[in-house]
């Protein structure tokens, strides 16, 4: 007689924690409601991926001890079978039990430590353990703000069009929560250097005098930006003059020159590892200082009174002029309360004056070659009185008044200045009750009526003289002037 016994295993139940830390030792328990007598039961943790076995003979629960790893996270199940399993006994499975794994973090970076601006920086915060993580990026211990060029996505940091401002110490913070407590780990710092590409250099030169026959040009290559060190090279057309690696954004080269001769065309090149930048071509030619010109401008205040006068001094030719200013033939060497000297490139100097008693007098400038001040060229002289009103029609007579003295100056002429007989010129007004001030250029051929020693008034025009009655003016008082010889 054949007897068939069918043993049915109830659905097991799996018990254990729902959260665990990486490295933590935890236990899971699998129980059967109808454990068969004298039948060993084999329990497996998980349906497909083996994670542990436990045997039960007398109805005790199966236990599983795990050292938690990151891969343990997921849905766990308990599978129960008879140890001498036959086809007549089917395995049963518990309901799923989800385990959340929270862990420690280690970070790796895939990035070049140095690169040039304009490249894309890609930092990745790689974890070897842990999940449910949130990330934060720090630059020099400060959170990196989001911008169109700073993009943070999950564990990645992308910086587009990098500049030297993106250089610094980068760190990644990864955080997650376990049992209502936030756990945060910070990576080690990675120092990133974004190097500035060199700008196009500027090239200039000055002439140096070694002795009366030997001169050289000191050529300067100058940059506004570029990460150091920088290699500078100087070329005269195709010929390399020299190169030097500098820890500054400039370098100098010395080149022999002959005054007045064209010595070629110079170009400066600069390179710090990314690209070679080129300056404009510059002619190596030194022209000696020529004629000196002096002009002026006035600033008006209330009631149209002159408050400031600006004198300008410039050479008609000359590559490297140097200027000096004089008041009554005295060198203006230091800045005073009533004037300021401003040398303005290329090759011009300005003297700014505050109009007043102390600034009255005769001005001129002198120019010389900056490398040789033994010879200088002077401008014409320009007289300005204490009120600074310009009247360039007056003669060189007034430009030399400072060499004598004026005891009184109270002439008044008729409204329309007459012609001087025999001179063929016009007699200009010296002023209406002296309310107009005078700026007079030396050497202008303009006439004026004066009384020399006696009260006899002469009209001086281009060296010609006429009797005061012929001049046709009305005399209000006497002009007493002691004058040097002007002719």
TrEMBL record:
The keyword Signal applies. GO terms for molecular function: transmembrane signaling receptor activity. This is Ig-like domain-containing protein. GO terms for biological process: cell surface receptor signaling pathway; immune response. SUPFAM superfamilies: Immunoglobulin (SSF48726). Residues 1-20 form the signal peptide. One of its GO terms (cellular component) is external side of plasma membrane. It comes from Anabas testudineus. Keywords: Disulfide bond, Signal. Residues 12-94, 117-191, 301-378 form the Ig-like domain.
